[in-house]
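In this section we turn from sequence analysis to structure. A common task in structural bioinformatics is to predict how a protein folds when a small molecule is present, because the ligand can shape the pocket around it. The inputs are simple: the amino acid sequence and a SMILES string for the ligand, here zinc ion. Study the lines below before reading on.
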Amino acid sequence: MIVISNQAAVGKGLLDPARLEEITVKMQQALLQDGTPLAAAYYCTHRSDENCVCRKPKPGLLLEAASDFNIDLPRSIFIGDSETDVRAAQAAGSRPLLFGLGLQVSSDTADWKSKVPFATTAQALFLVAAGCLGEKTLMGPRDRSSASFGRDN
Ligand SMILES: [Zn+2]
């Protein structure tokens, strides 16, 4: 798994980069306890007004991760919880997947959301992700596809 996240709080001076690193290490440890190695975390720390190439919905960080890890984007899924994540996945040529409890109660039928598969529980997420990849198992040893989880803070 690779995390790709907007963390403009750093660019705004609200979050110390060292603290973000600590949070990343804790996230890495928690995921590993669950049996999921975190290959990398990519952060855009720019403010939105800096107009960088890496802040989602721009695909910069997805493309960078794909290059760094030789990821086949059309065969990969990008899990997110916002329109920003969906747009970034689409711009990178990857497959978006929405995850979050908020989606369950939302009556929003916006166009960006209508064709994107979504899940509201971890179990459903696993099944939907496997379905997206057209495979019975997800991320097997010979499968080069990757799942990514986008956060947009
Ligand atoms: Zn950026």
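Residues 2-152 form a domain with the Rossmann fold fold (CATH 3.40.50.1000). As an exercise, try to locate the residues that line the zinc ion site and compare them with your own expectations.
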